[in-house]
Design a protein that fits this description.
This protein is mainly alpha-helical. It is built from 2 helices and no strands.
Length: 60
């Protein structure tokens, strides 16, 4: 899988909160943000799969 660059303009306070959260986990801000986005994407795809399964089996 290749990589691309995404540039963001964010509020100073948000960046400081991201730095703090990343530091608590021993991560860079970039790694923390990417990990958060991947987790969020997985959660959405998982929920969609659960809903599709429920529809398939007729679960109310």
């Amino acid at each position: 899988m290749g990589t691309s660059v995404l540039s963001l303009r964010i509020d100073h306070d948000l960046l400081e909160r991201l730095r703090h959260q990343a530091a608590k986990r021993g991560m860079s801000v970039q790694d923390y943000v990417v990990r958060t986005l991947v987790r969020h994407d997985f959660d959405e795809r998982f929920q969609a799969a659960v809903e599709e399964t429920e529809r398939f089996y007729g679960v109310p």
